[in-house]
Structure formats: structure tokens, C-alpha cells
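Quick entry, no commentary yet.
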Amino acid sequence: MYRIGITGHRTFDAPTSELIGVALRRIVEAYQPHDLVGVSSLAEGADTMFAQAVADQGGRLEVVVPAARYRESLAASHRRTYDDLLARAAAVHRLAFIESDGPAYLAAGVRMLKMIDRLVAVWDGLPARGSGGTAEVVSGAWERGLPVDVVWPAGARRV
């Protein structure tokens, strides 16, 4: 089994979402479904797009839930998608944090990095906007010597 984790931004405009979705599907489709484990926290944006691609491909999905109140921290419009993907997960790793905040996100990123062979980062290359952000997770992967595939297609932009 090859274990791939995801980190990435949460908000994009529609054209960027399409570009990123295509790029993530290409990455996932490079693996045989029975050999692929995707690890995600199922946040809006990149995390969910990757998890959906893994599930659609027939790969195994594992979820790292940063905190007990994580679901409540997600946009109301995203909760059904979160619930659906969480229900499809082969394994759920729940961290001991109560509040869904920077320390919980950072711990979830570190936990994920310990579980994977490769990281996919939907990242514009800019510093993190808060603790546990994409840039911090990418930096942690590099420090561990993990391969990192940065996905930021030409013309992509954050909202």
C-alpha cells in the first residue's frame, strides 16, 4: 500500500477548483486502487477534493480528525460532504483536542506526516496564514525527507 497525504488551501474560485480537481485526479489515477491509501482531514477545498478523488478511484481513505469540535468548525455547507466521506473512511484517527484551532490543526498535520509515504500540497507557495497551515505541513514533510508534490496550476488563485 502506498500512503499519500493531502494538505492545501480551503477556498478557491470556480476555475481554480476545476484546475486543482483535474490535477488531483491525475495524481490519484497514477496508482492502482488496491495500492492507494489517501489520508485527509476532510477540510473544505483541497482536502476534500483529494479524498473524493481517492474514494472515486476505489482507494482506501483514512481520516485524521483534529479535534472533537472539528465538524462544527467547518462551514455548514460542507458538513454533509464531510459526513459522507467520513462514513466512507476505512479508518478514522481522532486526536485528543477538543477545540478546532491552530494547535489541533498542526498536530493533525504532524500525525498525517507520520502515516504517509508522500505528500500532495495544494499550495500557492506563500507562508501559512495560521498555525497548522499548508506551509507548515509542507515544511514538516521536507524536514522528514518526504517527497512533496506541489499542485498550483497556472492561473490558480485563492479567494
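second:
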Amino acid sequence: MVDAIRARGKDFLLDVIGSREEGLKQIFSSASEHSSLIIEYVQRFGDFDGFFTKQNVAELTHAAGVEENLRLLQAESEAANPLVNA
């Protein structure tokens, strides 16, 4: 599924994390260019009944924060140099 979505031009914050053994695989999309919306894709295995493992939430939160910081830096750069980015 992730490969099919990527083929249509959607980026992701990182590779799929988790495993069948952990009971969960998941990935976050990159934010839309029009909003901060990030989509989470989850595949559960066995009797896992949640959305995150402790390790996964740390990795996903970090990746989302890095992307947001990059967007802020880009916006600041464009505001400071409007002719360079025209």
C-alpha cells in the first residue's frame, strides 16, 4: 500500500516501523503543502489493540517535529528573501 501511495506522489516521514512480532506496523505521511495534516497508516497483527508502541511513538513524533521545523525554516527564508524564491 505504501508503495502505491508513494507512486502517486505522496511522501512519508520515515520508512514503515514496527513488525508483525511487535503486533503493529505503521507509517506517517508528510504533511500536505496546504495544511499540517499528517496521515497515520496502521496495520495490526494478532490481538494488538492500540495505535502505537512506546518505541514507535518516539520515532514518529520526532519525525513529525523535524518536518515541522523544516517547514518553518523554509517559510522564514521565503519571507526574508522574496525575490530569490519568486
